[in-house]
Amino acid sequence: MLLAARHIEPVEIVRELALAQLDRFPLKAGDALQLAAALVWCRQRPRGRMFICNDRQLHSAADELGFEVAGRMSLALRPGSGLLR
After folding, report:
1. What Å distances lie between residue 25 and 39, 42, 58, 83, CA to CA?
2. Over the stretch 1-34, which tens digit does the pLDDT of each residue have?
3. Domain ranges of the chain
4. 71 in the Ramachandran plot: left (φ > 0), alpha (ψ -120 to 50) or beta?
């Protein structure tokens, strides 16, 4: 998987998108940067794109933006998983 990884530099568009996510969602700065980098990666078209995280607020924000979200939170949010707290 790392062979196909793409590094997103913290350029101006990433910072602008991160600030926009902070205005829209209750995220920490680092989480907003991660989400902004993902938005740059998918050219701001997240539908059908995978986003992996284990943070509840970041999970919710990515899901609301349209990403297919995976990670421990995804399992916890499934009914009957026994992980929902």
Report:
1. 15, 19, 9, 24
2. 556 677 788 899 999 999 999 999 999 999 999 9
3. 10-76
4. left
